[in-house]
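does this look right to u?? adenosine-5'-diphosphate version
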Amino acid sequence: MAVSPVRRRALFAAALGVTIPALLLAAVAVILTFRIVRSVQNDTVRYNRYLGQQVAEAFELELMDHLRRAIGPAERVARDGGGVPAVIEALAAEGEEFVAPHFVAVDDLNNYSLIIVEALPLIYAPGEGRRVGQYFTGLLLRQPDGNVIGTGGWWIEPGDFVRRNFDSVLRERLPSDPRMYGGIELTRRASIEVVDEGGVRLGRLREPGDLRTARTEPMAGPFERLGVRVAGGPDSPVVWIGRFLALELAFIATMGLLIIAAVLFGYRYIVRQLELAGMKAGFVSNVTHELKTPIAMIRLAVETLEMKRFKSPDEERKFLGIIDRETQRLAGLVDNVLDFARLEAGRGIFKFDRVDVTQVAASAIDSLKPRLEHLGFRLDVDLPEGLPPARADATALTHCVLNLLDNAVKYSRQRREIRVAAGARNGWVTLSVADRGIGIAPGDRRRIFEKFVRLENGLVHDVRGAGLGLSLVDQIMRAHGGRVEVQSAMGEGSTFTLALPAAGPVEDERPEGASARTGT
Ligand code: ADP
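got this back:
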């Protein structure tokens, strides 16, 4: 029984009502996180550039400190009016950390540049010829009258200077200099490198953790060919937020999939439960009808016999026949319901034995013979001798055959022919019941084996049934390690075949898909 379109739509709307807000929420969370990540990245870039400038300045200050320390004697000589040769001598006596002393007279300062470091001019110029790669760095020297006589200083190798002083600048000067907010870089856990124009690294504080926000700031003065590259370190916020974003996206994707799967599963489950509930309701009314009809007929026959309202012994036999047939029907139905309940509860216990299927078929036919004859069926029986025995529970197997025969009778119209045949193939014993009845549409050949399913083919209302027979046959066959197959042509008839594993030496032989049903 199908679920009504209105109910389906209501369920679908409820499913959408859960899924859409959940997806919207997830989308908002993702967008917000992306914006936060973008903002942290932008801040990091700004901060990295700022820190790069601070580091560059720190190296200028460091150089200025070194120069001022080394130039002291030369300054004193100049102030005392010692003259240029004495000044040069004083320069040569100091500055051993530099390459060579150098003095530039005031008139020769045209090609020199200067930067102001801590309010003092630092004069510099790149070297040429044998001094390529070196820079002159010096301070102004004054005579006693205050006039500048020139610039005293040294040739330095800026890269070498950075390399040698990298640690003291980065680990001491920068963190301790309050004017440079140097401490900040420690809390931000930045990675700082100084590189030359060829990209060669002259010093590094911490591994970089995030290269997307790395920025290189050019240095100035005698360090003009170098740059400071600052990036977030391995523990920097930008790295953490990147990991958080990846985690969040993975989490949201997983949750999204779970929600969609749960909603789909829930939707299908509820539809199935509604279908089953509808089928059960149909089943109860079917069974009630199935019970009432034979009881009414038995009562009628018993009353007739009691009151002796029959005219001849033939009529008396007819009423006795009715009682017999209807009792059989009742017993069959009760058996079906009880077996079904047992199998559903997982209490289907079978006593397996070596069973001759031809005997099972013959006894089932015998018990139905009066009914078949009464209804005018022609019976064609092909039960060859010498078939291998099957491994089966004889009572359950008889029940299956009776159900198939009962269906063959119920779903035949004018052409009342039933053929029962047994056979053996590849370690299997088969038993088939064929009719020339209404047939089963290809799309229904799997469905008919589901519990409570009765096809909506007009006959359902005329023909009695609870929709349990084939489901029972299928379950019993599966429990036997066998299967039930159906072949059918609409309007031509149907053949149901039970296939069971043969007992004995070939008992364990099973072809592929042993427990599958097939419909053709
Ligand atoms: P029911 O009590 O309705 O016969 P079954 O489980 O035995 O229940 O069968 C399920 C449905 O399969 C039937 O309602 C009928 O529509 C279809 N069916 C079963 N056997 C045959 C057959 N031999 N020919 C045509 N249709 C059949």
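The two ends are 24 Å apart (CA to CA). idk if thats expected tbh
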